[in-house]
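Objective 1b of the project was to move from sequence-level analysis to a structural picture of ligand recognition. The entry below was assembled by the postdoctoral researcher (A.K.) and checked by the PI before modelling. It contains the amino acid sequence of the target and the SMILES of the bound compound, pyridoxal-5'-phosphate.
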Amino acid sequence: MISYGKQSIDQDDIDQIIKVLKSDNLTQGPAVNKFEDSLGRYFNARYACAVSSGTAALHLVSKALEWGHKDLVITTPLSFLATANCIEYSGAKTVFADIEQSTGNIDPNAIEHKLKKLNKFKKKVKAIIAVDYAGHPCDWKSIKYLSEKYYVKLINDNCHAIGAAYLGKKSYASSYADIVTQSYHPVKNITTAEGGSVLTNEKKIYDKVKLLRSHGIVRKNEKNNNWSPWYYEMQQLGFNYRITDLQCALGYSQLKKLNKFIKIRRKIAQRYNQAFHGLENVFIPFEKNEATHAYHLYPLQIDFKKYKISKESFFELLLKKKINLQVHYIPIHLQPYFKKKYKFKNGDFPNSESFYKKEVSLPIYPGLGFKDQNTVIRSLLKILNV
Ligand SMILES: *Cc1c(COP(=O)(O)O)cnc(C)c1O
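Corresponding predicted holo structure:
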């Protein structure tokens, strides 16, 4: 079965994990620091805190920024649920702003529209969480401008765009956003099995995230050197969101290969682009001039109505050829939880909804060979009868 995404693990990754298994520390040993240092260097962030998942990273951000019941946070409907759920965990209210059709990213105009309206009603918007959908960086210049104009914190849920570039820089994320979150789930561009991180240049945020990662506990250190040897203090209500040394050894080894992984992803995308561009009512992923797409996903948009085939039968026909596509995403506002709580209905975010109707994610990952790429291309063209 060819699936839409898959990890790439080589012998070197395996050797690194075995080394940790034979060492004294399976968790919270030197591999965590080593991975965090390498993340900080690669993404040019002063502070990196590795955690147990991308969702944990987002949750910790909502806690570190102390969102509460009176607060609002703006985000995109076209993302994985965790992006909005971190707002819900905190008790704050989720406000969606629609996407731009070209990239699937949150539209700065839609953000400003919401900010203006909420300002008028004296509602406190605390933050914007933007997602670099599929691996294409958002319009960070415009979003940054808005965050400064309206005094809101800016978060990049960067889970898709690990290894992407904006205005030529792979370290763009933490230079525009106050906080960046990543995930290293096996389908993402690098993996630690489960895992994630929070990147920031602000020491205060980093300190809070680090404290909350492990139960809010402070142990003996340089500052409180007079403490008894066994003594520790719980200063805040934290979590166990720690990542293990095993995972971090894998992460360190994977990060060294990220540039190579992105090159291969871009090459596969190029082949798909060549195969599908120019087809009527089929839209290949858009890449803006200022962006270098990381192609975590290859979101192809097909106007199924024009091809007189339902998306369901399209999926089933490909499944018969052992090709398992995915769809990214069912717009979050249409999920029963959000619909019920906020009284959302169909048509509230038309761009996200029409994107969802047309979108299919084609298989893309470094291990997807030339033959499999051909199988995907041929099967797809055959089913569309072109
Ligand atoms: C994968 C992903 C997450 C969640 O990451 P996990 O590590 O699976 O918890 C959050 N946001 C986006 C955009 C993602 O793609």
